[in-house]
Specification:
The chain is an all-alpha fold. It contains four helices and two strands; from the N terminus they run H-E-E-H-H-H. Strands 1-2 form a two-stranded antiparallel sheet.
């Protein structure tokens, strides 16, 4: 065997090991899974108590937006921290790169503020036609 064949061997073994793992996980999930369900397993259940009332909870979308914005800006903090750790090794190219990155963060934040993504309360669209019911109620 040549040198190229021996260096490819670990990847082939890894590939088949991953296939075997995936097949095992899918087989076990089918064996232990939902196909054996009865009526009791389909009832909503949380913390040892059966659900009471409607399962539809209407939460304001702002909670999700704030959570997503937090995750985005938190990950950006990780990138800035990694740059700060390697500050001297990166030199001016790293400084210019992180400056562009922070500038883009600022532009994104200004866009979010101007578009009203961080505003809570009733959303209104400027320039949108009002409904006929609203016009009749005002008369």
């Amino acid at each position: 065997m040549s040198g190229a064949d021996t260096s490819l061997w670990p990847f082939v073994v890894y590939f088949f090991a991953v296939l075997a793992l995936v097949a095992t996980m899918l087989g076990l999930s089918w064996l232990l899974g939902q196909h054996r369900a009865n009526a009791a397993t389909n009832v909503p259940f949380e913390s040892g108590a059966l659900s009471v009332g409607s399962p539809q909870i209407h939460m304001a979308v702002e909670f999700y937006l704030i959570a997503i914005f937090f995750v985005i800006f938190d990950l950006e903090t990780v990138f800035i921290f990694a740059w700060a750790v390697a500050f001297f090794e990166l030199g001016w190219a790293g400084f210019i790169s992180i400056s562009i990155f922070i500038l883009l963060l600022g532009v994104a934040l200004v866009y979010e503020l101007r578009s009203g993504a961080l505003d809570w309360g009733i959303k209104t669209r400027s320039g949108a036609p009002t409904s006929t019911l609203t016009q009749e109620a005002q008369k």
